[in-house]
Protein backbone atom coordinates (compact mmCIF):
# COMPACT_ATOMS: atom_id res chain seq x y z
CA UNK A 1 0.00 0.00 0.00
CA UNK A 2 1.47 3.34 -1.06
CA UNK A 3 1.06 6.26 1.31
CA UNK A 4 -0.10 9.48 -0.32
CA UNK A 5 2.06 12.37 0.80
CA UNK A 6 1.51 15.98 -0.16
CA UNK A 7 4.21 17.45 -2.36
CA UNK A 8 6.69 19.45 -0.30
CA UNK A 9 6.36 23.20 -0.66
CA UNK A 10 9.18 25.57 0.00
CA UNK A 11 7.75 29.04 0.14
CA UNK A 12 8.92 31.50 2.70
CA UNK A 13 7.16 34.82 2.59
CA UNK A 14 8.97 38.02 3.54
CA UNK A 15 7.69 41.24 5.03
CA UNK A 16 9.17 44.52 6.18
CA UNK A 17 9.23 45.48 9.84
CA UNK A 18 10.23 48.92 11.07
CA UNK A 19 10.99 49.84 14.65
CA UNK A 20 10.12 53.52 14.66
CA UNK A 21 12.27 56.31 16.17
CA UNK A 22 10.48 56.62 19.52
CA UNK A 23 10.95 52.92 20.45
CA UNK A 24 14.30 52.19 18.80
CA UNK A 25 15.78 51.90 22.32
CA UNK A 26 13.60 48.77 22.79
CA UNK A 27 15.18 47.12 19.71
CA UNK A 28 16.59 44.03 21.50
CA UNK A 29 13.36 43.41 23.40
CA UNK A 30 11.27 43.69 20.21
CA UNK A 31 13.67 41.47 18.24
CA UNK A 32 13.39 38.81 20.94
CA UNK A 33 9.57 38.89 20.65
CA UNK A 34 9.87 38.65 16.85
CA UNK A 35 12.15 35.61 17.03
CA UNK A 36 10.00 33.91 19.68
CA UNK A 37 7.01 34.39 17.34
CA UNK A 38 8.61 32.15 14.71
CA UNK A 39 10.12 34.77 12.40
CA UNK A 40 13.64 34.78 11.03
CA UNK A 41 15.34 38.14 10.66
CA UNK A 42 16.82 37.89 7.17
CA UNK A 43 18.28 41.40 6.98
CA UNK A 44 18.53 44.29 9.39
CA UNK A 45 19.87 47.81 9.31
CA UNK A 46 19.67 50.95 11.38
CA UNK A 47 19.18 54.16 9.43
CA UNK A 48 17.73 57.64 9.60
CA UNK A 49 15.44 58.78 6.82
CA UNK A 50 15.17 62.33 5.57
CA UNK A 51 11.69 63.90 5.37
CA UNK A 52 11.88 63.46 1.58
CA UNK A 53 12.67 59.74 1.92
CA UNK A 54 9.78 59.37 4.37
CA UNK A 55 7.48 61.10 1.89
CA UNK A 56 8.55 58.64 -0.79
CA UNK A 57 8.16 55.64 1.50
CA UNK A 58 4.66 56.70 2.61
CA UNK A 59 3.62 58.02 -0.83
CA UNK A 60 0.34 56.07 -0.63
CA UNK A 61 -0.61 58.19 2.40
CA UNK A 62 0.03 61.49 0.60
CA UNK A 63 -2.84 63.96 0.90
CA UNK A 64 -4.13 62.62 4.21
CA UNK A 65 -4.33 65.02 7.16
CA UNK A 66 -1.68 63.19 9.19
CA UNK A 67 0.88 62.95 6.35
CA UNK A 68 3.06 65.94 7.40
CA UNK A 69 3.15 64.72 11.01
CA UNK A 70 3.94 61.18 9.85
CA UNK A 71 6.93 62.25 7.76
CA UNK A 72 8.19 64.52 10.55
CA UNK A 73 7.83 61.69 13.10
CA UNK A 74 9.50 59.05 10.90
CA UNK A 75 12.45 61.35 10.13
CA UNK A 76 12.87 62.51 13.75
CA UNK A 77 15.50 59.90 14.62
CA UNK A 78 17.03 56.57 13.69
CA UNK A 79 14.86 53.56 12.98
CA UNK A 80 15.53 49.86 12.53
CA UNK A 81 14.44 48.17 9.31
CA UNK A 82 14.19 44.39 9.18
CA UNK A 83 13.19 41.83 6.60
CA UNK A 84 11.24 39.13 8.40
CA UNK A 85 10.63 35.70 6.92
CA UNK A 86 8.32 32.81 7.73
CA UNK A 87 5.29 31.09 6.26
CA UNK A 88 2.53 33.73 5.82
CA UNK A 89 4.88 36.41 7.17
CA UNK A 90 2.71 39.39 6.16
CA UNK A 91 -0.43 38.20 7.92
CA UNK A 92 1.38 36.89 11.01
CA UNK A 93 3.32 40.16 11.36
CA UNK A 94 0.13 42.22 11.02
CA UNK A 95 -1.49 40.04 13.68
CA UNK A 96 1.48 40.45 16.02
CA UNK A 97 1.44 44.24 15.47
CA UNK A 98 -2.26 44.69 16.20
CA UNK A 99 -4.36 47.69 15.11
CA UNK A 100 -2.49 50.76 13.82
CA UNK A 101 -4.06 52.97 16.51
CA UNK A 102 -2.20 52.08 19.72
CA UNK A 103 -5.05 53.31 21.93
CA UNK A 104 -7.49 50.96 20.20
CA UNK A 105 -4.88 48.19 20.25
CA UNK A 106 -4.72 48.44 24.05
CA UNK A 107 -8.48 47.87 24.25
CA UNK A 108 -8.89 45.16 21.60
CA UNK A 109 -5.43 43.49 21.33
CA UNK A 110 -3.67 44.17 24.66
CA UNK A 111 -0.77 41.79 23.94
CA UNK A 112 0.01 43.18 20.49
CA UNK A 113 3.26 45.05 19.88
CA UNK A 114 1.50 48.34 19.16
CA UNK A 115 -0.49 48.06 22.41
CA UNK A 116 2.76 47.49 24.31
CA UNK A 117 5.08 49.96 22.54
CA UNK A 118 2.82 52.53 20.87
CA UNK A 119 1.59 55.72 22.46
CA UNK A 120 -1.19 56.96 20.15
CA UNK A 121 -2.58 56.72 16.62
CA UNK A 122 0.48 58.27 14.95
CA UNK A 123 3.24 57.03 17.26
CA UNK A 124 2.37 53.35 17.13
CA UNK A 125 5.96 52.11 17.53
CA UNK A 126 6.21 49.72 14.60
CA UNK A 127 5.41 49.38 10.92
CA UNK A 128 4.39 46.37 8.91
CA UNK A 129 3.63 45.80 5.25
CA UNK A 130 -0.05 45.51 4.37
CA UNK A 131 0.32 42.95 1.57
CA UNK A 132 2.89 40.80 -0.22
CA UNK A 133 3.11 43.43 -2.95
CA UNK A 134 3.65 46.33 -0.55
CA UNK A 135 6.20 44.19 1.33
CA UNK A 136 8.21 43.72 -1.85
CA UNK A 137 8.13 47.46 -2.61
CA UNK A 138 9.00 48.45 0.96
CA UNK A 139 11.84 45.92 1.23
CA UNK A 140 13.31 47.24 -2.02
CA UNK A 141 13.03 50.78 -0.62
CA UNK A 142 14.80 50.02 2.68
CA UNK A 143 17.25 47.49 1.23
CA UNK A 144 17.95 48.66 -2.34
CA UNK A 145 20.74 46.10 -2.79
CA UNK A 146 18.48 43.13 -2.01
CA UNK A 147 17.45 40.76 -4.77
CA UNK A 148 13.85 39.68 -4.37
CA UNK A 149 13.00 36.94 -6.75
CA UNK A 150 9.39 35.91 -6.84
CA UNK A 151 8.82 32.19 -6.68
CA UNK A 152 6.84 31.30 -9.79
CA UNK A 153 4.08 28.71 -9.63
CA UNK A 154 1.69 27.09 -12.09
CA UNK A 155 1.81 28.45 -15.63
CA UNK A 156 4.38 31.10 -14.72
CA UNK A 157 6.75 28.34 -13.56
CA UNK A 158 6.21 26.32 -16.74
CA UNK A 159 6.79 29.42 -18.87
CA UNK A 160 10.01 30.17 -17.01
CA UNK A 161 11.26 26.60 -17.46
CA UNK A 162 10.38 26.58 -21.16
CA UNK A 163 11.91 29.98 -21.83
CA UNK A 164 15.12 29.81 -19.78
CA UNK A 165 15.93 26.41 -18.30
CA UNK A 166 15.08 23.97 -21.09
CA UNK A 167 17.01 25.78 -23.86
CA UNK A 168 20.08 26.05 -21.63
CA UNK A 169 19.90 22.39 -20.66
CA UNK A 170 19.33 21.33 -24.26
CA UNK A 171 22.33 23.31 -25.53
CA UNK A 172 24.56 22.06 -22.70
CA UNK A 173 23.57 18.42 -23.00
CA UNK A 174 23.88 18.51 -26.81
CA UNK A 175 27.40 19.94 -26.54
CA UNK A 176 28.24 17.31 -23.93
CA UNK A 177 27.05 14.48 -26.22
CA UNK A 178 29.05 15.85 -29.18
CA UNK A 179 32.28 16.35 -27.21
CA UNK A 180 32.05 13.25 -24.98
CA UNK A 181 34.68 14.53 -22.53
CA UNK A 182 36.45 12.07 -20.23
CA UNK A 183 35.41 14.13 -17.22
CA UNK A 184 32.08 15.84 -18.03
CA UNK A 185 32.11 17.83 -14.79
TrEMBL record:
It comes from the Eukaryota. Keywords: Kinase, Transferase. GO terms for biological process: cilium movement; CTP biosynthetic process; GTP biosynthetic process; negative regulation of oxidative stress-induced intrinsic apoptotic signaling pathway; spermatid differentiation; UTP biosynthetic process. InterPro entries: Dpy-30_motif, NDK-like_dom, NDK-like_dom_sf, NDK_H5, Nucleoside_diP_kinase. GO terms for cellular component: cilium. Residues 12-150 form the Nucleoside diphosphate kinase-like domain. It holds the Pfam family NDK. One of its GO terms (molecular function) is nucleoside diphosphate kinase activity. The keyword Chaperone does not apply. Belongs to the NDK family. This is NDK5 kinase. The gene is Nme5.
Amino acid sequence: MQMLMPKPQIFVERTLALIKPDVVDKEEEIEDLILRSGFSIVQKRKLQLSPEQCSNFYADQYGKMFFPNLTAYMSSGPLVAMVLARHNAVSYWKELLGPSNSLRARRTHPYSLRAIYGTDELRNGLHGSLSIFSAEREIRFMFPEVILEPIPAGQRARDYLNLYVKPTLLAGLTALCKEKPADPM
